[in-house]
Structure prediction request, 483 residues.
Amino acid sequence: MSTISNEKYEAVIGLEVHAQLLTNSKAFASVSSEYGAAPNSQVTPLCLGHPGTLPVLNENLVRYIIKMGLATDCKIAEKSIFARKNYFYPDLPKGYQISQYDTPICFGGSIDIELENYSKTIGITRIHMEEDAGKSIHDQDPYHTLVDLNRAGTPLIEIVSEPDLRTPEEAYHYLAKIKQIVQYLEVCDGNMEEGSLRCDANVSIRLRGQKELGTRTELKNMNSFRNVERAISFEIERQIELVESGGKVIQQTLLWDPNKLETRQMRTKEEAHDYRYFPEPDLPPVYVTQEMLIDIRAELPELPSVRFQRFSDELSLSKDDAYILTESRVLADYFEEVLKDVNQPKAVANVILTEVLRVLNEKSISIDQFSITPKRLGELIALKMDDKINSSAMQQIFNEMLQSELSAVELAEKMNLMQVSDTGFIDPILDDVIESNPDEVQRYRDGKKALIGFFIGEVMKKSKGKANPKQVRELLLPKLENS
Ligand code: ADP
Ligand code: MG
Prediction:
C-alpha cells in the first residue's frame, strides 16, 4: 500500500470465525464427526436429509458455546432459538442449515489483543451455534464432483466480531487469540489447515476521519493465518487503487487464491432475505438456567491472559518468557508439571524456552508429542541445580535423553558426567595445573587475581568437566596463595 493512500484511507475489518467443536458426536445426530474417517462412513439418515428424521440437540454443543461466551465476556441469552438458513448446495442434502439468526445464544462480548506497541479491545457482536455442511471434492475425479457427508451436521460455533479491526496485523492477532482461547477451553483444536478453524474477513476502506462505513467485500478460503493477513492486505490495496482511479467498491464475496496471491470474484453478496431464514420447527428453544451457568463457569480453566499475568507476577518470569510459555495451554501445563518437582521457575523456563522449543521446532512437533516427560526433565534440571552436573553436561544429557529411556542420573553416570566433589580426585589435578603453569602462578601472586578464571578453566578441562567449579575455586585459592 503506498504511503499516500495510507494517510488518506483507513481499513475497517470484521471477522466471522467458524470453529468446529470437539464434541464426540454431531450437533443433532449421535454419530461421530471426527476428522479423517473414510468418506461417507459417518452419516445417519438425518445427515442425509431423509424424510421423517428429526434432529436432537447435542447438549455439549450448548455447554461448549457457553464456555466460549463466558471466556469472551459475552452475555448469555436465557432463551435462544434455532433458525433454518435455506440454500441449495450438493453437499447440503436437507436444503437448509440449522443455525441461529436473530437470537444468538452469546452476544455483546469482547476479546483483548496485544500487539507490539499497543493493546486493543475488539468487540464480539455474537457467537451462535450452527451445523456444518458436507464437503464437495472437485479435484479427485476428472469428470465429477464427489460429495463427502461426514462433515454434514458437525457442530460449529460462529464468532462474529464488530468492525473494530483496522489492520491486517490486528486481524492476525485477533484470530490467534481466538485460536488460543478455544484451545485453552478445549472446545476446538484450532487447526486452520484441517479446517477446524475457518475465517471469513469483511473488508472496507474509508477516508480517515469519516464516520460511516464503506462498502465491504467478504473474503473466503483463507486456510492459514498467513493467508488471512495476506488476503486482507491485498484486498485493502485493491480497494484503495480502485477508489483512487475513480471506481466504486461493490459488495461481493471474493475467493482468496493462495497460489496466485490474489482475490477473485465468487458471487455478488447474498442478503439475509436470500436465505429465507425462519425458526426451526423441529427443535425447541434452548433455555439456559442459572445453575447451568454456575456449573459451566466452574469448569472454565485459567484463561491465557490470567495465566500470563500469574507467570509474570508470581513466578517473576519476564513478559516475553511468560508470553511464550502461555501461548498454548499444553506448553504451560508442561512447564507447571516440571515446576512440581523443581520449584525454580526461571531455570525451568530457560531449559524449556531454549532446549525443548528448539527440539519441537526441529521436529515440527508439539509439546504433547515430545518424548521427554516433565518428570524426567525435572530430574535433569534438579541435577544441575544441585551442582551435580554443569551446564554443558546438562545439554549433552538432554540430547541423549531424546533417544533414551534412561533417567538423567543414569545417563550422567553412564556418560561419566557427574561432577566429582571428592578431593582425592581433584587434588592431584590442582597440583598438576599449578606445577605446569609457574609463570601464571607468579603473576597471580604478584597481584593479577583475575587469573583465577584461567586456573579454574584448566582444572575443568583436565577433569573433563567433572570437577565442580565452585569447589575447584575454594580449593585453588589457598593453594595459589601459599608457596
Ligand atoms: P453477514 O452475515 O451478511 O456477513 P453481518 O452484518 O453479520 O453480515 O457482518 C458480518 C461481519 O462483517 C461482521 O464481523 C461485521 O463486523 C463486519 N462488517 C460489517 N460491515 C462492515 C464494513 N462496512 N466493513 C468491514 N466490516 C464490516
Ligand atoms: Mg458473512
In short: The chain has three domains: 3-292, 302-414, 423-482. The two ends are 75 Å apart (CA to CA). The pocket of adenosine-5'-diphosphate (ligand 1) is lined by residues 12-16, 160-163, 202-204, 213-214, 216 (CB under 6 Å). The chain is about 40% helix and 20% strand.
